[in-house]
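Per reviewer request, we include the raw input and output of the structure prediction for the construct analysed in the revised manuscript.
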Amino acid sequence: MAAAVGGRLKALLDRRAFWEHLAALVGLGVGKDLIFVPDLVSGPKGRRAVVLSPHCDDETIGMGGLLRRHGAAGDPVTVVHFTGSVSAAGVAAYAPGTREAEARRAAAVLGLSDLVFLGELDRGVRPYPALVDRLAGLLREKRPETVYLPWFLDNHADHVGVNLVFRDAWEKWRGRCVVWAYEVWSPLFPNRVVDITAEAEWKKRALAEYRSQQAALDYVSVSLALNRYRAGLRMGGRGYAEAFLAMEASEYLDLLSRWQAFRPGDGPEGGGGRR
């Protein structure tokens, strides 16, 4: 197992062309050393947004501070939760509706009310036709200027799966939008940083609503610790910040395709999910 993982890591690091392409898109320099300074911004220019959240809590972990800013401004934001309280094995991991109810309470703290629950199986998000068509329909209806989603190298199969569903849905929709990819399980290469110091307490309160998840891991402390770390990028280590990889959807999906070309054939393209 260790040898296999080591081999994949070496293959990843050897894909210099991929990293150079990423660097060019986000304005980074790749050489012997990699030094970059992301832009410190208040948020995207496009305020009409759709947030893709693989699990009920990912949206708050990854960008709860910025979501509170959207909510306080009254921006038209739709949060799309892909999974709920049922696992890919078809087993209810929680009482029916537990995570959905938590998501509604967290959204209320953040000032949001437009939520969509797709009802996919936890650990089973795959780009099958019915799910792709449903998301494409939502994109046509909401016409987002900004789409938020976990970045495509976030270390969870459902997070990768959401990227693949978005890729196929965007191909059907083809609307002009900017992707702001957020981080949950794996730190990303940011080109945007948002100071959420003023919203940090709201983010803590929203995360605390996910009581079923807090029982397994202190997500409040873990998430805010990452935000403290991100404050070191442009804020002198003071306060809290959320980091994003932002680019036009077409560029982001091209980057995803380049990465998929390097993956072994055991990714989340097939199997699992609902049909």
